[in-house]
Structures are given as structure tokens and as C-alpha cells.
Amino acid sequence: MSQEALVRSWGYSHVFTWTDGPNEYYPPHRHATETTHLIMHGSLTIRYPQSENPGEKTTHSVGERVDVGKNVLHEVWMGDDGCTCKPMHSDHDLKFSNSTDLLRTLEFG
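C-alpha cells predicted for Cupin 2 conserved barrel domain-containing protein (109 residues):
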């Protein structure tokens, strides 16, 4: 089964490949939907500032699935080799007029 078929089997219809360069950083943000990332290359480290352990960072690498709940505040650091993943989101309540709207929701929702 391909990686895209695998993530679609989890119930996600919007699946694409995303690559970030080495040591890129996304400051604390939220998404309007539940999101999942299947890591294909490199690694990422994630922290949830409003969790019970706000200082805890967790690093994920190739083959791991990272789930982030709807509207959960989180920040992300890419590893030294960057990170390529299959990000996807739950789109039950979303309607997009074009791919730019979709990406804006995933990045800044």
C-alpha cells in the first residue's frame, strides 16, 4: 500500500507531500481541524505549550504518525535534515474554494 493510500485509509481525503528545510521553526499556532503528519524523511519536534507538561518536547522520525487535535496550541521544530511528511486533516466541516484556502487553513488555521 502506498503512503498516500495508507493515510487515506485513516479517513483523510486531503493528503499531500510537504517538505521543510533543516531547523525550520513554526511558532505556537492552532489548526481549525484535527491534523495528522506521517513522517517520510527527517524528523520534527513538537511541543504543546498548554498541556499538563508545557515544557515537554517530543521528537518524531521516519515512519511515525503525529496527531494534533483541533484547535490544540502547538509549536514545531524541524530536525537537522529537515522533514518531509504527508500532512492531512479532517475535513468534515470544511469547504475550500481552492488549494490556497486549504493551505492557509492548515498553516494558520
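Residues 3-102 form a domain with the Jelly Rolls fold (CATH 2.60.120.10).
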